[in-house]
């Protein structure tokens, strides 16, 4: 799945399949300007910052069990969001500090370090990486991902895929080659 935020005409947090199909709103009320998003892949939670409402909130992948983690004026200066173990990590753009926030109570907030011009944060750790299994976009004997001549996108499951073409090309009638 692909998770993303939008604060155009109607602010929301959404999800869809990697090929853009099955687009679903998971948060569409009491939300104004969601600017950063992080996933807890193990427990299947979505965290986001709303800088207009000055809050950090969480829901499950279906948009249920919504909770506010923390609220306050300091939120409007946050950008980027990552989750690892018991904490959320974010960047305070006002003083360029990396913050650690307890994701269960929101009160334990610590500044960890300062970085010049930081706008985004990611945590890379072996336990946060999903195990790779055989999937529909694996290279075929000719090296083409999922048998697609240009781009292979996973669909509704790891066993299904959709082929797409680079800009300027159209998908052929075989659903795999680009012309």
TrEMBL record:
<dbReference type="InterPro" id="IPR050778">
    <property type="entry name" value="Cueball_EGF_LRP_Nidogen"/>
</dbReference>
<dbReference type="InterPro" id="IPR000033">
    <property type="entry name" value="LDLR_classB_rpt"/>
</dbReference>
<dbReference type="GO" id="GO:0060070">
    <property type="term" value="P:canonical Wnt signaling pathway"/>
</dbReference>
<dbReference type="GO" id="GO:0005886">
    <property type="term" value="C:plasma membrane"/>
</dbReference>
<dbReference type="GO" id="GO:0017147">
    <property type="term" value="F:Wnt-protein binding"/>
</dbReference>
<feature type="repeat" description="LDL-receptor class B">
    <location>
        <begin position="1"/>
        <end position="43"/>
    </location>
</feature>
<dbReference type="InterPro" id="IPR011042">
    <property type="entry name" value="6-blade_b-propeller_TolB-like"/>
</dbReference>
<protein>
    <submittedName>
        <fullName>LRP1B protein</fullName>
    </submittedName>
</protein>
<dbReference type="GO" id="GO:0042813">
    <property type="term" value="F:Wnt receptor activity"/>
</dbReference>
<dbReference type="Pfam" id="PF00058">
    <property type="entry name" value="Ldl_recept_b"/>
</dbReference>
<dbReference type="Pfam" id="PF14670">
    <property type="entry name" value="FXa_inhibition"/>
</dbReference>
